Amino acid sequence: MPKTTPPPASTPPSGSRRQQLAAQQAQAAREQRIRRRVTIILVATVAATLIGVLVWVGVLAQTPKPGTPTPGTVTANAAAAGSDAWTITVGQTGAPVRVSVYQDYMCPFCGRFDATNGDELNRLVAEGTIQLEIHPMSFLDRASNGTRYSTRAANAFVTAAKADPDSAMAFNDALFANQPTEGGNGLTDDQIATLATAAGVDPNVVAGFKQQANTSWVDQGTKADFASGITGTPTVLIDGKPFKGDLYSVGPLTTAIKAAAND
Amino acid sequence: MTELMERWHRLRQADTWTFATMLFSAALSLTASFVLSVDAVALAANPDVNLSCNINATISCGTVGQSWQASVFGFPNAFLGLIAEPVVITIALASLASVRFPRWFMFAAQVVYTLGFLFAYWLFYEAMFNIGALCPWCLLVTLSTTLVFASLTRHNIRHDNLYLPPRAQAALLAAQRMALDALVVWLWLTFIVAAIVLRYGTSLFA
Question: Exposed end of chain B (fewer CB within 10 Å): N or C?
Answer without folding.
Answer: N
